[in-house]
Amino acid sequence: MNTWRPCWEALTLNPRLIVELGVARGESTRVFAQVAKICGATLVGVDLNDCSRALDWEAWHFIQADDLEFAREFPNWCRQRRLEPVIDVLFIDTSHYFDHTLAEMQAYFPYLADHAKVFFHDTNLKNFIFRRDGSMDLGWDNERGVIRALEVYFQKKFNETVEFSDFVTPWRLTHYPYCCGLTVVEKLAHLFPAAT
Q1: How many domains is the chain built from?
Q2: How distant is the alpha carbon of residue 196 from its chain centre?
Q3: Are the C-beta atoms of residues 42 and 83 closer than 8 Å to each other?
Q4: Which tens digit of pLDDT belongs to each residue from 30-50?
């Protein structure tokens, strides 16, 4: 995944709270940590596995838990740390299965700031993946799990094989099909207050 796009997109928000669902080896964690350091934001990572060594930064909060279970505790967890439970940047890179991704959207979207950005990784996942430079690699067919969850949530069909930008008020969706796919969902509620 090209991590520069999420980094730049996140920086444009000057976020206060960044939540990453799915840490693994910490590639994106390190990128979001740089954003958090620049903006003075709080960075929270959630993963089922022990990924506590993915980042060596005392201000990073790693939660080893099921992300859906943590969503139920999220407001209290924030209040205990004197944080407002309002997410400016949300990165979703977990199971990549339809049911789980849709449940994550339903669980975390109520906590999004009016100007939030959500990054979905692996929105164009197939048995073979093609990078922008023309190279290819092996992937796995998740039966359009992540992009289908977006389709159900926004009640609209998307063609994940091509680059697109679309609006579903108050949301803007921008999709990049390269490699495994990355979709950026931007909440524009501050521009459409009647739609929220």
Answers
A1: 1
A2: 20
A3: yes
A4: 999 999 999 999 999 999 999
